[in-house]
């Protein structure tokens, strides 16, 4: 294998340190990542755009000496713009569109020294919890390629799990960082609302329900990436509470004895399947062994009404996005080439009146108050990230209409609630099913308390290490 044969021995921070110490070059790391992409991507369909020459040119021009100097990196094919390259939102509607500037977050990635060499697969407009866009075809899970890597950051999850790179961009508007983290055996933190910038294109995503961050193999990479990218930008509508310390330092700081509430039932439709509950009980035992106090408790609200509010916000914003695209192209919405599921979502958004949209925003705010009060009593809320292990490819996207809802809700957990409230929420790879498929456990804290989750995550990573667990389809296993 060309490039750097010890690539798998290091996380992103480790690779960046080697570059700064002169032990390996950014060119070596990039060529290793490219080789690995070419080896496994044919089976995974994780990387849909390749910017190899642009990445080589960036190295030639000189890289900032940031914490991730020379580390290969992939952007999700959704929302974020990178000057001179395509961003298609997983859709034919943006096919071939070339950006004329960098999003603020891309600027911060570059400032950290990351070398961006491609984009990962995303469902159209990020609307599905599986990654199976018509434009690019399905991404597959390296733990079992018959199964989904989750969504909407499924391509990112598959790429990191398969060893293409240690950390990749992801975004989360209803669980889309935590779902692929769960499905692929990775760390996935959705930061607090306003922690990571969304500009300059917009001030917020999906009325504050959506944000960007990463999926990674280690907690410290997730924390260091937050250090590198967090903080408000000029003209922001709001920002997360200021954290005076280093998120990376928090990882190695013991959290003390926490009061942790555990939820064994869902707010929304469906139920946690046996594997989810088995993983939950194992996690409870581990937490108790670490000295945490566990109680069964959760805030009481109408889960179905909350789910309806979440979906209303998504559909209205999808309708706006599509309407803006039609204006840019000078055509009608009916003429746009979109998937049927997207069109239905857009139609629902168009049919929503102003009062109903305002009621959905009000519902989100009410749930936020309930969760805020809840976290005055409990430091952390624990639940399975997903209700089931990763489902087979096509199981949801190709479901008969009469079965779609049941299949979806028996797969999904309650991740979307924390998008509605703006709270930080992290999925950690603490369980594998009898079939060897990953299942994450989700920890959520009060708004702005990202550091506490990283403290707890660091402790759990030390107590139940997962980094050396690798899927059958991994670049290291291919000659």
Number of helices: 15
What is the fold named in CATH at topology level?
Amidase signature (AS) enzymes
Tell me the overall shape. Answer: globular
The count of strands amounts to 11
| Approximate helicity band | 25-40%
- Measured on Cα atoms, how large is the radius of gyration? 21 Å
Instruction: Provide the low-confidence segments as ranges.
Output: none
Overall mean pLDDT stands at 97
* Fourth-tier CATH superfamily name: Amidase signature (AS) domain
CATH 2nd-level architecture: Alpha-Beta Complex
Q: Tell me about the biggest sheet?
A: 8 strands, mixed
Structure, explained:
The N and C termini lie close together (about 5 Å). The chain has a single domain (about 5-475), classed as Amidase signature (AS) enzymes (Alpha-Beta Complex), CATH 3.90.1300.10. The protein has about 475 residues and is an alpha/beta fold. α2 packs antiparallel against α3. The longest helix has 27 residues, at about 305-330. It is globular, with a radius of gyration of 21 Å. It contains 15 helices and 11 strands. α9 links the parallel β7 and β8 (about 295).
Explain the layout of strands and helices:
Elements: H1 12-20, H2 26-44, E1 47-50, H3 52-61, E2 72-76, H4 104-111, E3 115-120, H5 154-161, E4 167-172, H6 178-184, E5 187-190, E6 211-216, H7 219-229, H8 247-251, E7 259-262, H9 274-289, E8 293-296, H10 303-329, H11 340-351, H12 354-374, E9 380-384, H13 401-409, H14 416-421, E10 425-432, E11 438-445, H15 450-463
Parallel strand pairs: 2-3, 7-8, 7-9
Antiparallel strand pairs: 1-3, 4-6, 5-6, 5-10, 9-11, 10-11
Helix pairs in contact: 2-3, 5-6, 10-11, 10-12
């Amino acid at each position: 294998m060309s490039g750097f044969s010890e690539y798998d021995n290091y996380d992103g921070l480790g690779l960046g340190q080697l570059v700064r110490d002169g032990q390996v070059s950014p060119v070596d790391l990039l060529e290793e990542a490219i080789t690995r992409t070419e080896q496994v991507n044919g089976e995974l369909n994780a990387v849909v755009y390749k910017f190899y020459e642009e990445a080589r040119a960036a190295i030639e021009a000189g890289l900032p000496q940031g914490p991730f100097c020379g580390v290969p990196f992939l952007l999700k094919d959704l929302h974020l713009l990178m000057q001179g390259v395509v961003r298609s939102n997983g859709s034919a509607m943006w096919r071939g569109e070339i950006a004329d500037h960098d999003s603020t977050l891309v600027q911060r990635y570059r400032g950290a020294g990351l070398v961006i060499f491609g984009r990962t697969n995303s469902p159209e407009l990020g609307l599905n919890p599986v990654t199976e866009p018509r434009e690019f075809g399905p991404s597959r899970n390296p733990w079992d390629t018959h199964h989904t890597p989750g969504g909407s950051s499924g391509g990112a999850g598959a790429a990191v799990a398969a060893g293409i790179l240690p950390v990749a961009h992801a975004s989360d508007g209803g669980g889309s960082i935590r779902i692929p983290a769960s499905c692929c055996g990775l760390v996935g933190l959705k930061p607090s609302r306003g922690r990571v910038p969304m500009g300059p294109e917009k001030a917020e995503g999906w009325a504050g329900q959506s944000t960007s961050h990463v999926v990674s193999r280690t907690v410290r990479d997730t924390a260091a990436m937050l250090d590198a990218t967090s903080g408000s930008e000029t003209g922001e509508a709001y920002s997360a509470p200021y954290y005076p310390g280093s998120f990376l330092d928090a990882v190695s700081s013991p959290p003390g004895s926490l009061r942790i509430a555990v939820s064994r039932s869902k707010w929304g439709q469906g139920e946690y399947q046996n594997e989810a509950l088995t993983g939950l009980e194992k996690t409870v035992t581990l937490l108790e062994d670490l000295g945490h106090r566990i109680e069964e408790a959760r805030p009481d609200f109408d889960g179905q009404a909350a789910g309806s509010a979440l979906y209303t916000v998504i559909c209205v914003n999808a309708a706006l996005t599509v309407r803006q695209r039609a204006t840019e192209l000078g055509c009608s919405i009916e003429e746009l080439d979109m998937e049927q599921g997207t069109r239905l979502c857009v139609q629902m958004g168009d049919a929503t009146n102003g009062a109903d949209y305002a009621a959905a925003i009000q519902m989100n705010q009410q749930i936020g108050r309930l969760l805020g009060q809840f976290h005055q009593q409990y430091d952390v809320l624990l639940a399975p990230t997903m209700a089931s292990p990763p489902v087979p490819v096509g199981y949801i996207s190709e479901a008969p209409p009469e079965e779609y809802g049941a299949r979806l809700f028996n797969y999904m957990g309650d991740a979307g609630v924390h998008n509605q409230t703006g709270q930080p929420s992290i999925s950690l790879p603490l369980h594998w099913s009898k079939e060897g498929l990953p299942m994450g456990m989700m920890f959520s804290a009060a708004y702005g308390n990202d550091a506490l989750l990283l403290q707890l995550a660091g402790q759990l990573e030390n107590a139940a290490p997962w980094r050396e667990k690798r899927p059958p389809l991994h670049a290291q296993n291919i000659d």
